[in-house]
Amino acid sequence: MSAGLHVLGPVDEIPVGEGRAYSVASEQIAVFRLRDGSLRAVSAVCPHKGGPIADGTIDRAVVMCPLHQHAFELETGCSTTGAGPLRSYPVFADGSQNVVVRFP
Amino acid sequence: MTALASRTGRSTPGDTRRRLVVIGNGMAGARAVEEILARGGAVQYRVTMFGDEPYGNYNRIMLSHVLSGEEDAGGIFLNSLDWYRENGITLHAGVRVEKIDRFAKLVFSDDGRATPYDVLIIATGSRSFMPAVEGLYTPGGRLLPGVFAFRTIDDTQGMVSYAQQDHHGRAVVIGGGLLGLEAARGLQSHGVGVDVVHSGGHLMNAQMGPDGGAVLRRSVEALGIRVHTSSRTTAILGGDKVRGVQLRDRPDIECDLVVVAAGIRPNVEVAVTSGLPVERAIVVDDHMRVPDEDEIYAVGECVQHRGEVYGLVAPLWEQAAVLADHVTGADPSSVYLGSRTATKLKVAGVDVASMGLQAPERDTDEHVVFSEPSRGVFKSIVIRDSKIVGATLLGDSRKVAYLTQAFDRGLPLPEERVSLLFDLGGPGDEAGVAELDGDAQVCNCNGVSKQVIADTVKGGCTALSGVMDATRAGKGCGSCKLLVRQVVEWAADGAVAEDPTAAYYVPGVPLEKAALMTAIREQGLRSVSAVFAALAPGGAEDAKSKMGLASLLKMMWAGEYIDERDARFVNDRVHANIQRDGTFSVVPQMKGGVTSPEQLRRIADVADKYNIPMVKLTGGQRIDLLGVPKEDLPKVWADLDMPSGYAYGKSFRTVKTCVGQEFCRFGTGDSTKLGIQIESRFQGIESPAKLKLAVSGCPRNCAESLVKDVGVVAVDGGRWEIYIGGAAGAHIRKGDLLATVDDPGTVTLLAGRFMQYYRERANWLERTYSFVPRVGIEQLRAVIVDDAEGIAARLDEAMQRSVDSYADPWAERNSPFTPGQFRTSLPLEVLPRVPVR
Ligand SMILES: Cc1cc2nc3c(=O)[nH]c(=O)nc-3n(C[C@H](O)[C@H](O)[C@H](O)COP(=O)(O)OP(=O)(O)OC[C@H]3O[C@@H](n4cnc5c(N)ncnc54)[C@H](O)[C@@H]3O)c2cc1C
Ligand code: HEM
Ligand code: SF4
Ligand code: FES
Questions:
Q1: Is residue B416 domain-shared with residue B443, that is, in the same domain?
Q2: Which residue in B481, B562, B589, B694 has the most C-beta neighbors within 10 A?
Q3: Cα(B194) to centroid of ligand 3, in Å?
Q4: Tell me: the pLDDT tens digits for B201-247?
Q5: Dist CA B48 CA B766 (whole Å)
Q6: How much is the pTM?
Q7: ipTM of this predicted complex?
């Protein structure tokens, strides 16, 4: 994984309240656009049984995996239902409304 | 390794553990093994269990709830088959042990196996006692059809399906004790009229005296159960099947079903044939060991300890712990000294607690009695030397915890005896709970102490439902729920997390369905985000609530609903059913299960073109294309050029039909045509849970209409029967007959009206098989057929609006609704794939 900033594409590619999956420098991440417009990024594969996290349902705090409904905090990646954690990544929209993630 | 294996004669090379064999896989046997494992027994022992019943271990107490339909049979398992596997236990389920060879240390079972043991535990429990009554058995020696014991899952399910058959409207329960009353209450919920025939002078005479029995009788009769005390059953009438019972000196009672609940007898045959000491039951010492047998233990209802044989679960928790202390050597000083039988139960919905003496025995005994028959409350306490030596409490369980402890420990009593019966502003419930010792048992059914509950709360679990899930407290007969709640409140210092979800339609909005619908309508809330903003605490969204709200709003607003795609579950965003590997399944509409060569050809071409890994016929008479990646969905739909079959949503799914009149020589109605009409009308309407329908052309019922959410059967004379609330999945239920009508048009009308009523009234994810019995078929018939509430026209109109707003979701293939709607969220990693056949 290469540390630093990565531009993923226009914010508009992500509908409000949903998530989309991106493959960045051999990492798979799911980026969500909350209803308040802010962004969250976590790893895209559910630690439970590999469910596609980007297809999950979210609110302001958590994402629920579509396969068995484990929930994970969008800020930290920690599971609130006893599954293993997702990784979380800093993410923001730049001046030209592109999604940017930072890899540590 | 081979040398070692042959030297020790063990089947697994290198496994030097001793062999522990358990006969009987019921509540005591499984609990004993749990206790042994908890003491690290897996290091010492390889465990093999034999169980006569072909299942894992289940909570026998809950059979009453299974009988009444409150609980699925699948929901009462304490140890699933996975549990045995995970703990390395070999379970021979459905295998009966016939004999023990104590000298060769072998157990012989009816599958012809001889199993060696180093340590043996007998936990064979008891069975229903069958009194000598004429006509109980057929000449072949089996129970007469319609006669049931009440001991096992199989007994219970047999009773349920027999009670649900047509023309089985009356039942007699022989025995007015705990089990008999539970059976009577359970049968009532299947619409069966019940008489209880009891040979004793009053109900539950093992637990209470005549005064309490009389109050209990009033409460039971108020439920609509007829009670005949001092009545002996002399014969079962019928010959080929039950048609009634004959009583001594009383008129016969006609009935279709008889439940024998006249007591239990320990299963001791194996012990007797094997030469073990048996009196009333298998004799054990204070270590739960069979006398003179170093390696044989026994536990549970099959045991006689210091002359006592127990018939309730509480003693066996204590027995299992002592047994495990010895079997594992964890505590060689541990002894079982017998249990004081303070019983606390819920019988037929009535709280019953009893301990010690039923009535005073000496002139100097004090007797404090309070009786209020109209409320079903009776309290009696026997006091000797200022200590409680007996108590009976009916219909009010508030002082039970305190009294039980006072009885167990001989606590000094307050001067004012009346405060034993009531809280008189003195130390209230709170204080009462605070005074309980840590090891006081709060839930007798599952053996949970106050300490365990308190520790769970301290561990961060402060919601009542969470504590109940974590400890199983309150999940048996339910009589201790109030006490569990008090202990949780006490342990949490008042900071109890309120049970948020119980009554709410969805967890994130604190309103029941009716109130929620009113608020939505009054405030004109047309989108899920608007509902959260207006009605959720702090306006907070809740992921778990979104799908339920989306469904409700679509139902309420139809065409005026503001559809926010993020409120949908992924299935409803992409109109396909997500599979374990993240791919989707595609099921095109095939109305009534009728297709054509053109359609089949197109489906075959699509399957070829997109390399569909599996093509399968569904249970709903359609064709399922499995393993389609999300990004292929629009192309697959385009090539199929068929509408969606809605096999993914909480919605109207499909109408299964039989060939019917057109071709079948038995057919009396055109089932296929009607099925297609129904499916065309109601396709895709959303509902609280999925709806599966069927139409059959005659009572042979080839489309299985009796086990559908709505099932239609053509009967003679061109008439149609409509059944509702059937199911044949995890839960099996025969639908209730809603109406018999003259023409297909009325079928469609009433089916639609029922579905609309269900959509408006049912809880989120409540299938019709729960909804229909909850509301009651009489009530449903009154509303839907007779329009007793004057809402039929409104229901029809609301349904019509939903029908009119139908649009085939697969049309979105041409213009995705959101950017990247069909973009893959895979293949992000190598995932398990469904094998290709
Ligand atoms: C409907 C009902 C409601 C009840 N309600 C309550 C209640 O509210 N409160 C309460 O305290 N108690 C209640 N009880 C009693 C409670 O269920 C029993 O006390 C408890 O199940 C006894 O456990 P056990 O392991 O000794 O026997 P069981 O649970 O009967 O287990 C014995 C097992 O051994 C098997 N077995 C027998 N012989 C053999 C053999 N030779 N080879 C292999 N397997 C064999 C049997 O098939 C059975 O599965 C209720 C019982 C019933 C039937
Ligand atoms: C002349 C009389 C009948 C004929 C010729 C007939 C023939 C068939 C055939 C060929 C099948 C398909 C088997 C398959 O899918 O492999 C079938 C399935 C079935 N039949 Fe019959 N049948 C007859 C009467 C009945 C009756 C009277 C019933 C009901 C009591 C019935 C119930 C069923 C059921 C439940 C199925 C399975 C349906 C499914 O696959 O989902 N049949 N029958
Ligand atoms: S239900 Fe009756 S009409 Fe329909 S196929 Fe079966 S036998 Fe024929
Ligand atoms: S795979 Fe995500 S919850 Fe099971």
A1: no
A2: B694
A3: 36
A4: 999 988 888 989 999 999 899 888 999 999 999 999 988 899 999 99
A5: 40
A6: 0.53
A7: 0.91
